[in-house]
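Why run this: before we spend reagent on co-expression, it is cheaper to look at a predicted model of the complex and decide which construct boundaries make sense. The entries below are exactly what would go into the expression plan.
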Amino acid sequence: MEAKDDPAGMGSEADLAARFLAAIPARLEADPHLVWRGRHLHTRCMIEIGTTRFLLHVDGGRVPECRSPLPPLSSWDFAIRGSVRAWDGLWTAVPSPGWHDLFALSRRGEMRFEGSLHPFLANLQYFKDLLALPRTRGVA
Amino acid sequence: MSGAPIEPIVGRYAHVPILDEACRVYFEEAGQGIPLVCLHTAGADSRQFRHLMCDEEITRDFRVLAFDLPWHGKSYPPQGWEGREYRLTTERYIATVLAFCDALELERPVVMGCSIGGRIVLQLAHAHGDRFRALVGLEAADFQAPWYDTDWLHRSDVHGGEVCAALISGLIAPQSPALHRHETLWQYMQGGPGVFKGDLYFYRVDGDLRGRLGGIDAERCPLHLLTGEYDFSCTPEDTLRTAQSIPGARVTIMKELGHFPMSENPARFRHYLLPVLGEILQSQP
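The model came back. Tokens follow.
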């Protein structure tokens, strides 16, 4: 419990955004089962890391487009908006209590889900696993 | 000659009247000694306690029993279920626990429940404490703030098993072994339509115990509350707040555990549970 008010990570917004771009779609493509689990999913979602925004086009479990900054007049089905602290905590190798899950973060006010949430909830474990891909892994 | 390993768990069915309805209740048990009745979490079943029933250090002194609530696991719903929405109420839950203990003629058992099972343990302590030797609430509190809309759990355009499991997956500690994490999720994937949501009616609507736990005698019936530090549904703060209103309640915050301690990381959980059971054993009248 002692680390609860501190996500214990060290990333800046720029670091986290770079980590996100490095992981998606490369780490997704390296996990064919995760792609398969999203095979019926077609949606556009906006992921916000602090003030940095990404537009993800998910097509049959793949992410053919991950754009930042957003093109003019972009639209999306739903958005996941997280603070820098939220993503920093979530992506540490072993997240601290309260920083370890999207809903833990929303409960503590560090993350928000907005828009038409059906594709998000109907494919929730897919999105949880997709958005965990930038997590720091052990020494490779 | 050596056969395949066979666990000591035995499963049977008891015909138990609950609120004037005939219910066929599946239960498993192992061990001998003080009856220890285990209550599973919402939307799951008695498999969550399989590790306790195979732990000789526990079954040496305790007769561990775990039943599937009607609508769960191998306990069918009662006749006529198809014509109504399932909702677990405080009245139904209390009646079920007491009817099961009566049906098996258990003498002053210990009851240990997790999540909704932990909440009902508080109600048992409040209203029926004299019937029990001790009570153990896992992930238990008098109230927890909702963190999602339960309508998502039961609708025709979302797979209920998948969304239930995905929602609760974050309540498992990241340190829990993959084998046990995914067994725990599988329980949720197998729940009947609307059952998890119906259980949460008790949790969210009917079972708010704030300010209603006066008069619990933790001297006569010891009350132990154990909560995992990664549980953001029933947080350690929720449990500590609850315990403050119950003189004599004992609280343990469990490191590297979440909302399903007995199921998600049985080896770590026993480290916290064994001292509690040891105390109960020592205080046996």
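The longest helix of chain A spans residues 13-23. The first strand of chain A starts at residue 42 and ends at 49. Bring this page to Monday's planning discussion.
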